[in-house]
């Protein structure tokens, strides 16, 4: 039996006294727990490309008369995985529902990036336990990045034995099999492949909306920043073939989508794993530039692999938007070094200058971690000074959260939580100060907005985003939803703009 077959046959019932007694033996023999140690050894294991995903006849009636509900906790990639799982459910005949109450299957698509993301999931499991008691036929599954963690799987097996299925990020395409096992056995089905990951094409998807769409261009991450769990939960870097991506983008354009976001944990490493062609993100963007889709974004960029070719292509403009999310993490070269980001403050500033020179209208946003182990006051102040120097449009800011199995989690840390909280507050004050200043510059200006729908708080008002991802609320006709329109900005708030439509432009390119 190879590893795959062994994993496929896995069923564990922690409630079963016998298996509980022999638990460790059983665990070792039948079920290979996801292992952070194994993940760290990037193997020579071949990445397999599967082009032929299909739902076999035996599963086709499975969802008849049943409803599914998926709750998503993570990043865009996680959300896009939810779209794929929804596509598989629909292909199996299930119907979607908007709440847990009338769902027959509930999946929690989890995120492991910080401790509070994990706590939310365990909290939700607590709530769902009661529902499961009321309706024992309900199937409850945990998937996503937390499922790739050994400690999480163990905790669910031992403390949340009412969960019916746990499956990992490499097992999404196996959902029909996993569901079938779960229906047949009513024992906990655990299928988590601790491997490098494959690339699977032709997966069904139910996209959330008709205006904007996500397109995966690569999976995994090989950067191993010392604080980060993603390389362990998502496997090694592997790129989709350009022709598959281009075909998907063409389809989206033909279906009338107005904006796509190319997704990857580190999109600048796109193509580095191809052995037969020399082809990078710049080349891909150059092809997509020619496709008749009005807006193209990409995320997330890693400063290290951001090359000249990409800058040159982005400078062409057109549908390639001038907003770049470029996580810096810290303004201190010493901290960056311990984070293993593999660039210095100077290198980052140089890169930003190059980008601004080639694309003068470019707006930059970033991610920052404060309170990394032993971060000194001076090092933190370097982050503040870098922020001031670059004048980012905005930033996602986080307090460092130790992740089990990562090198940083083993570091001694002399920074008290109270100090970390204060640093976050000080940074957030600066982020706000600069955001206010930059937003003010829009007053009186005309911006192009992709209209997404009614504003959250007021159905009389429409809302959409500019090319630089600024939220704009404005008065205009409902018929402009899904279109690009010109809006005159009357007032700038901290995180959004107010305005009035002046022209229903269809200006593409
Ligand atoms: N691949 C992207 C980011 C992925 S995670 C990149 O490298 O830029 C999104 C953000 O979460 C990171 O940029 C980082 O700022 C934050 N993050 C990741 N691990 C973290 C941790 N252990 N504690 C706090 N923040 C973390
Ligand atoms: Fe995590 Fe670093 Fe990879 Fe981003 S590049 S996902 S921060 S390891
Ligand atoms: Fe979270 Fe996994 Fe994304 S850890 S941030 S859902 S890749």
Explain how this protein is built:
The chain is of the alpha/beta class and 509 residues long. The protein folds into three domains: 3-45 and 54-191, 3-Layer(aba) Sandwich (Rossmann fold), CATH 3.40.50; 199-438, Alpha-Beta Horseshoe (pyruvate-formate lyase- activating enzyme), CATH 3.80.30.20; 446-504, Beta Barrel (OB fold (Dihydrolipoamide Acetyltransferase, E2P)). 34% of the residues lie in helices and 20% in strands. The chain has 16 helices and 21 strands. The strands form six sheets. It has a six-stranded parallel sheet with strand order 3-2-4-5-6-7, sandwiched between helices. A five-stranded mixed beta barrel has the order 17-18-19-21-20. Helix 11 (281-289) packs parallel to helix 12 (308-314). The N and C termini lie far apart (55 Å). The chain binds S-adenosyl-L-homocysteine, iron/sulfur cluster (SF4) and FE3-S4 cluster. FE3-S4 cluster (F3S) is lined by residues 74-75, 77-78, 111-113, 144-145, 229-230, 233-234. S-adenosyl-L-homocysteine is lined by residues 113-114, 227-228, 230, 265-266, 300, 302, 327, 329, 367, 369, 398, 400-401, 403.
> In terms of quaternary structure, what is this?
single chain
> How many domains, as an integer?
3
Report helical residue fraction: 25-40%
- CATH-assigned fold name of the largest domain: pyruvate-formate lyase- activating enzyme
Distance between the termini: 55 Å
Query: Looking across the biggest beta sheet, what order are the strands in?
Result: 3-2-4-5-6-7
If you average the pLDDT, what whole number results? 89
The number of helices is 16
CATH architecture of the largest domain: Alpha-Beta Horseshoe
| Bound ligand species | S-adenosyl-L-homocysteine, iron/sulfur cluster, FE3-S4 cluster
Quote the beta fraction: 15-25%
Tell the overall outline: globular
Organism: Metabacillus herbersteinensis
GO molecular function, one term: tRNA-2-methylthio-N(6)-dimethylallyladenosine(37) synthase activity
Cofactor: [4Fe-4S] cluster
Domain TRAM: 440-503
């Amino acid at each position: 039996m190879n590893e795959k077959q062994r994993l496929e046959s896995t069923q564990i019932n922690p409630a079963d006294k016998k298996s509980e007694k022999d638990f460790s033996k059983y665990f070792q023999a039948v079920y290979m727990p996801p292992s952070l140690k194994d993940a760290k050894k990037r193997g020579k294991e071949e990445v397999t490309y599967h082009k032929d995903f299909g739902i076999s006849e035996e599963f086709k009636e499975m969802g008849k008369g049943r409803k599914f509900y998926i709750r998503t906790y993570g990043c865009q990639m996680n959300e896009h995985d939810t779209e794929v799982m929804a596509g598989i459910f629909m292909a199996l005949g299930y119907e979607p529902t908007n709440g847990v109450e009338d769902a027959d299957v509930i999946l929690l698509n989890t995120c492991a990036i910080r401790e509070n993301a994990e706590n939310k999931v365990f909290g939700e499991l607590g709530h769902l336990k009661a529902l499961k008691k009321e309706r024992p036929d309900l199937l409850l599954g945990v998937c996503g990045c937390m499922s790739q963690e050994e400690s999480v799987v163990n905790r669910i097996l031992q403390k949340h034995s009412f969960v019916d299925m746990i499956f990992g990020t490499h097992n999404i395409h196996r959902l029909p099999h996993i569901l079938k096992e779960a229906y047949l056995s009513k024992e906990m089905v655990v299928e988590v492949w601790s491997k490098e990951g494959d690339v699977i094409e032709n997966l069904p998807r139910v996209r959330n909306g008709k205006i904007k769409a996500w397109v995966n261009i690569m999976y995994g991450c090989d950067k191993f920043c010392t604080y980060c769990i993603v390389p362990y939960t998502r496997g090694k870097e592997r790129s989709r073939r350009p022709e598959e991506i281009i075909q998907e983008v063409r389809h989206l354009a033909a279906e009338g989508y107005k904006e796509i976001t190319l997704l990857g944990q580190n999109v600048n490493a796109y193509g580095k794993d191809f052995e037969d062609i020399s082809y990078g993100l710049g080349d891909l963007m150059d092809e997509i530039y020619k496709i008749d889709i009005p807006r193209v974004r990409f995320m997330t960029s890693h400063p290290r692999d951001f090359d000249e070719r990409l800058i040159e292509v982005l400078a062409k403009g057109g549908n390639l938007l001038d907003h770049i999310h470029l996580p810096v993490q810290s303004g201190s070269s010493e901290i960056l070094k311990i984070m293993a980001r593999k660039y210095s403050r100077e290198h980052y500033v140089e890169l930003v200058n190059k980008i601004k020179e080639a694309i003068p209208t470019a707006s930059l946003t970033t991610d920052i971690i404060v309170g990394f182990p032993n971060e000194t006051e001076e090092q933190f102040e370097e982050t503040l000074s870098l922020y001031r120097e670059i004048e980012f449009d905005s930033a996602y800011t986080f307090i460092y959260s130790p992740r089990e199995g990562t090198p940083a989690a083993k570091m001694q840390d002399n920074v008290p939580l109270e100090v970390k909280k204060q640093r976050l507050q000080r940074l957030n004050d600066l982020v706000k100060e600069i955001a206010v200043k930059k937003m003010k510059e829009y007053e009186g200006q005309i911006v192009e907005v992709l209209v997404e729908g009614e504003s959250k708080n007021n159905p009389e008002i429409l809302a959409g985003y500019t090319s630089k991802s600024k939220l704009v609320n404005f008065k205009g006709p409902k018929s402009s939803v899904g279109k690009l329109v010109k809006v005159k900005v009357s007032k700038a708030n901290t995180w959004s703009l107010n305005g009035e439509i002046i022209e229903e432009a269809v200006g593409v390119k």
